[in-house]
Write a structure and sequence with these properties.
single chain; HU Protein, Chain A; 2 domains; three-stranded antiparallel β-sheet; about 30% strand
């Protein structure tokens, strides 16, 4: 399922215009993104949680040439599934 499928499903389920549903979905995603940008953790009970993980820099190797390269520290979004979703998917 992609974003447009989600919008269409929402419009069908709650009988709202597509444009209104698109605004709702965009608002939810923007709000979640903004929360992650400021370092907040997002928890949706039964579904999972989103957080930003920080990774330290390290010295890696270029697999093609074998040369050492410095990999800088970085922050990446991370999703951890909730218990109910995990059991449902099994």
């Amino acid at each position: 399922m992609n974003k447009s499928d989600l919008i269409t499903t929402l419009a069908t389920e709650v009988d709202l215009p597509l444009r209104k549903c698109e605004d709702i979905v965009n608002l939810v995603f923007e709000t979640m993104g903004d929360a992650l940008l400021i370092g907040d953790r997002i928890e949706i009970r039964g579904f999972g949680s989103f957080m930003v993980k920080e990774y330290k820099g390290y010295t890696g190797r270029n697999p093609k040439t074998g040369d050492q390269i410095a990999v800088t520290e970085k922050k990446l979004p991370f999703f951890k599934t909730g218990k109910e979703l995990r059991e449902k998917v099994r």
